[in-house]
User: Fold this.
Amino acid sequence: MMIDRLVMATNNKNKLREVREILSPLGIEVISQQEAGADVQPVENGTTFAENAIIKAQAVYNAVKAPVIADDSGLCVDALDGRPSVYSARYAPEGQECAKLLDEMKDISERSAYFECCIAFVDGINTEFMTGRCYGSISREAKGTNGFGYDPVFERDGKTLAEMTSNEKNRISHRAEALKKLYEYLEKKKGE
Assistant:
């Protein structure tokens, strides 16, 4: 089954840009759910990244009846028993996530953490999941202006994700790792 267009169950321009950059060599057009005409806001009440990803993917698929991908991702901090995890987007008011995390961790020396991403692919016949993780640590202060969300406080290889270029981040990020698996899956489907 040839796929030449994918709908991404998001209206987040940053996520959409990352997905387009990584999947562009396949020649598959990636459009947002809004561009596809899917005016849905499913309730993400899953307890895992996979559950939330499939909730979004299935809701958009039901609206557009075309191949859909959805991702759910978050930051898991070891010293906080894995929090904020699936609640990363609701951990603090938008734009205050980094400040809240740094405040909560100000007296904690163990700073290891990882980002996790799960992508769900739905095309009406197949449902597939691809996951990726990016391991690093929480910095002592926010640094950098690239990226979004927790990128300014997540360090890897001596830099925060927000200090990296798009190319650097796309080589190591959790979403990039999951998207590479999606890329391989879609490439295989193109050959069928």
Observations:
- The longest helix spans residues 174-190.
- The chain has a mean pLDDT of 93.
- The chain is about 30% helix and 25% strand.
